Structure to design on (128 residues):
């Protein structure tokens, strides 16, 4: 396949419908494991739709470390266990920077399991 320039890509996107473009963005995000963040003004305009989605059952949860508590070293060890691929320095920075999201958009059972492990180590956790 020939490599397309930025202008050629934009011309191709202009021919797509909004629905087709939305499907493309979702596929792009899944393929490259990234998120296309929407500007704040657009997010505020979409708030009524978000309220309707919230009425449906939530299937993705965020695990947020509120504080490490008294046993910071134990919490750092558990954070490294819960978050794959995290080095000691990254885990320490994450724990010291609380409140921070430890896991994002995970299944309910994974969020609950992580919460239990972290609370057992002495951390204060919230699941949203």
């Amino acid at each position: 396949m020939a490599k397309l320039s930025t202008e050629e890509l934009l011309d191709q996107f202009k021919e797509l419908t909004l629905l087709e473009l939305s499907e493309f963005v979702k596929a792009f995000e899944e393929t490259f494991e990234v998120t296309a963040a929407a500007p704040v003004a657009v997010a505020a305009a979409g708030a009524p739709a978000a309220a309707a989605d919230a009425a449906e059952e939530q299937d993705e949860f965020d695990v947020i470390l509120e504080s490490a508590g008294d046993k910071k070293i134990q919490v750092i060890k558990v954070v490294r266990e819960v978050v794959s691929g995290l080095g000691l320095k990254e885990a320490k920075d994450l724990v010291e920077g609380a409140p921070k999201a430890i896991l994002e958009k995970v299944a309910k059972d994974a969020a609950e399991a992580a919460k239990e492990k972290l609370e057992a180590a002495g951390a204060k956790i919230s699941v949203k």
User: Anything to note?
Assistant: The CA atoms of residues 5 and 11 lie 10 Å apart.
